[in-house]
Amino acid sequence: MAVTKTEIAQALVDKIGISKTQATEILDLVLETIKQTLEKGEMVKISGFGNWTPRDTSMFWVGPGNRAPATSPEYSVRSTRKKSELTSPSLCVSLPNP
Fold it and tell me: What CATH number did the domain enclosing 35 receive?
């Protein structure tokens, strides 16, 4: 089961005693800050939780060695920006193995 933004906001309400509106605004601000930082190409590091680093991939051609030449033409795959994440070792220790 995934934890939703609403559940995280409710946890803030329960633990800190702020209104649900305030909790949602705080959570939105934190998530938007993380998003904008990654969009600028900068690393996000939250101690005890993990790191996120944006990385760019280059455009490449899919040619004869990577496809069935008789059934599909050669084509290019455009460059993209992806995120790379690294979970904190202390968080990994506390998570159960699947």
Answer: 4.10.520.10
Residues 51 and 64 in one domain: yes
Element (H, E) at 82: strand 80-87
pLDDT tens digits, residue range 15-68? 999 999 999 999 999 999 988 998 888 888 988 888 888 777 776 666 655 555
Q: How many domains does the structure of the chain reveal?
A: 2
Whether the model clears a pTM of 0.70, i.e. scores above it, the answer is no
- Among residues 83, 86, 90, the alpha carbon closest in space to that of 34 is found at 83
Pairing of strands 75-77, 80-87: unpaired
- Distant-in-sequence, close-in-space partners of 69: CB < 8 Å, separation ≥ 6: none
DSSP annotation of 43: -
